[in-house]
Structure to design on (1000 residues):
């Protein structure tokens, strides 16, 4: 396979990485993907860390039905507008063999009401909350669900947009508007913590403008990392739903003043789309690049041996190191998870059908952060060769120092990936005050610019440049200015970008 | 709610337990359940332990599509016979608003080929293996998937049989018949280990007769625990699929002799049905009974306090205990997981709106194995009251001994639950040599009896008694005898029972 450069054809390069690292592949089913073991292992690491974060913030997991009655989708007007169009619809519940012995849908097994395969779960979850919430004492209800969802997408692409994808979704219920807003911000910050400290992604964070809100929400916030082609990724948003779904599904509670009140709600989710973000933010012209915090294997050992006897000797030689490493844990900086331990995973590649160089290549493609090489030469010197995946440097290290060195390297590699992404984002985010310059920069990069705050202006800019307002900057960075498009007053710069 | 006794109406009693312990509930969607946080936490503990067992036996997780093209189901003849009948069928991919502004299925968005919501995944997974397996070096392929599946069941019941349920499914591929058989038995034993040591379930284990095999399998094995109404539960089976799916999906590999050969396959799964088994095997007239190995909370602390000041004091008093307990791990006997650690989970119920007695009741219903009670009286004596959930005994224990005592109790309770189930099963499993006695005993209990080995006899017995052959007994328990029905020669006793 000829390596394509990012600058030649970035999306082809993406496909190559997904294939080379054996992350996922297309299936025989229309635009549904198969997530392969190595890709799924990364996804499980993401799940485990997020689950620990949910637990640390007192959220609990539950599970709600895959199917949504058609009538449910009609209940929240904006919601149906947004979701009900392209979706998988179950209309029948039986197949039969016809007279020609062919398998056909049994026309007599038609459902009275069609079921929609969940494109999102707000409606079915809010409906079930109706039975669970009676008084303010039942609140808050902080529930997370992990589920597959289906949207009949047109331009599909592995991890970014597929007909079926996997996600985690929070649907919380609160006794006041204030509490709901607090939860919305708090959990946005949990996502931000995860993005920085585990996914090694620098990002902007802030509120979305009115016209970019989630269908049915009062307020939407998002975090915005830059992909290497200068686009933003819509992947982490947090919604304050106000009372709209409570009204649509009649979810009321008795408040502390003994009055019936509609419940206040929030929701947010992340999906397998994070894997797209991970690749598009970090990978270079040569490889997938994987932050050690999410790597399924941290250390691969490639022994140089000809006989099983030699292999045995090498394994004996390495035993003290692997024992030490297996007891070590990585703990990354995180405000949410102060002591979350990630076990160092070691793989000794004992395959005697493949040459060491073949193995080198395989593990390079999967971007295992650290590789140890041992043969008779190293053993004679009481050393091990350590190869560091990010800088591709090799060092010979005294056997007693190997475990410590490996631990140091894993932290260093994690930090370097983050630092590189931060530098790249900052270098390619431009403060712009002029519309011509805006049009030039926005073609490729992030722009911080003033706008007058009207949807009309935002839409005109979008029509002319394909860029959208990704988020407002935080309050402490506010600055009064003039809209780059209309010249009218602006109360603060916002982040513009093209986005996936 | 009036407590119903198991002897009055066992299935009503079951429903009460599911409701009281807040495990799950019916949803607004046809026979789909909502798994509530406490029930889902038990299911997650099951998942975590099984995942550790899969890892210990070198299996990896992956994910395959939710939808199966209709034509796939037709490819394996027995398979379609068994599964294709009652299933959810996606026929359209778009809704639209009609002239009356009602949401309807868009007739123009009809699929060329209908998609079936997976009732099981053999076909889609084997199809994807075709691209992955080329040579014997690609084998074995040991893949596990966690997924929701849908079967259009008629008589539904929470956890036992619902339209949608969650499960883990293994689909492995091997280079020889022998290896496939070895895997089938090995992983059956993994299930057996899990059932004994974590679910605290005594059980029979063995091969299923020809007519009870999985559709498309060469051989099926199962493990058979007794529910308290004397029925068996069909929940853990292990299938040697031979080459039938490989032939249907044309999955071939180059073997060591350089010949093209169809791949040898196995599959097996467990589902949320295990939760039905857990309740039906252990729970009594009063409560859910939960083995500590699977309990979401091991220790609940109910403090007696009137003011926040008093609560603070109690928490300070308990701090050394909770600290000690939080560092403790439970390690249960298991051949597969020698050192799997289960963190002791502690919950301090600080709610100041509920009385301690109200809390006692709540945690009794959820069957938290150990309860600690502390008030000013206990503090004055430097003690803590420990309540042991299974025997309902209370003891006052010196504060320094509490952690150790709690640990001991958790192991003891686990053992007692298993011992009780073993005793119950053994007492109610009858060795029978006469058909009249058989008919009498099989009405309610397990029976070990001789049969002539023909499907015809098995079917006649089933017609007359509703009992099926659950499994053959292991080879070392073989004994020649005469069929209780036909009087013909029998090569060994088998386990008969009615089953869920």
């Amino acid at each position: 396979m000829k390596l394509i450069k990012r600058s030649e054809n970035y999306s082809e390069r993406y496909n190559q990485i997904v294939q080379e690292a054996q992350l996922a592949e297309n299936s025989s089913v229309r635009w549904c993907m198969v997530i392969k073991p190595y890709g799924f292992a990364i996804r499980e690491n993401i799940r485990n860390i997020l689950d620990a974060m949910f637990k640390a913030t007192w959220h609990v997991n539950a599970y709600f039905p895959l199917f949504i009655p058609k009538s449910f989708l009609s209940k929240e007007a904006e919601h149906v507008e947004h979701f009900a169009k392209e979706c998988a619809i179950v209309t029948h519940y039986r197949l039969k063999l016809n007279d020609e012995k062919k398998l056909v849908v049994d026309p007599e097994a038609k459902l009275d009401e069609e079921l929609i395969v969940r494109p999102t779960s707000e409606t079915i979850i809010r409906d079930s909350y109706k039975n669970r919430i009676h008084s303010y004492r039942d609140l808050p209800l902080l529930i997370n669900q992990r589920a597959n969802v289906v949207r009949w997408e047109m331009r599909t692409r592995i991890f970014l947009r597929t007909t079926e994808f996997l996600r985690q979704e929070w649907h919380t219920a609160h006794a006041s508007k204030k509490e709901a807003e607090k939860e919305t911000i708090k959990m946005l910050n949990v996502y931000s913590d995860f993005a920085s400290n585990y996914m090694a992604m620098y990002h902007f964070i802030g509120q979305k403008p009115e016209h970019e809100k989630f269908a049915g929400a009062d307020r939407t916030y998002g975090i915005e990392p830059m992909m290497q082609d200068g686009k933003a990724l819509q992947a982490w948003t947090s919604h304050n739903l106000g009372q709209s779904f409570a009204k649509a599904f009649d979810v009321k509670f008795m408040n502390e003043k003994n009055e019936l009140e509609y419940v206040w709600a929030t929701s947010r989710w992340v999906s397998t789309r994070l894997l797209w973000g991970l690749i598009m933010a970090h990978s270079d012209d040569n490889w997938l690049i994987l932050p050690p915090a999410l790597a399924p294997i941290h250390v691969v050992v490639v022994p140089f041996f000809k006989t099983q006897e030699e292999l045995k000797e090498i394994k004996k030689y390495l035993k003290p190191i692997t024992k030490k490493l297996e007891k070590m844990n990585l703990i990354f900086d995180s405000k949410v998870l102060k002591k979350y331990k990630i076990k160092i995973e070691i793989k000794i590649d004992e395959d005697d059908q493949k040459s060491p160089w073949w193995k080198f290549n395989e593990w390079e493609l999967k971007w295992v952060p650290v590789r140890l090489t041992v043969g008779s030469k190293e053993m004679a010197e009481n050393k091990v060769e350590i190869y560091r995946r990010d800088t591709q440097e090799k060092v010979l290290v005294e056997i007693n120092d190997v475990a410590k060195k490996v631990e140091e390297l894993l932290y260093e590699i994690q930090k370097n990936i983050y630092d590189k992404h931060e530098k790249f984002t900052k270098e390619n985010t431009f403060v712009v005050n002029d519309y011509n310059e805006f049009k030039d920069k926005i073609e490729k990069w992030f722009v911080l610019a003033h706008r007058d705050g009207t949807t009309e202006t935002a839409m005109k800019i979008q029509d002319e440049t394909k860029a959208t307002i990704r988020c407002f900057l935080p309050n402490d960075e506010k600055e009064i200015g003039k809209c780059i498009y209309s010249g009218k007053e602006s109360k603060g710069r916002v982040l513009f970008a093209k986005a996936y």
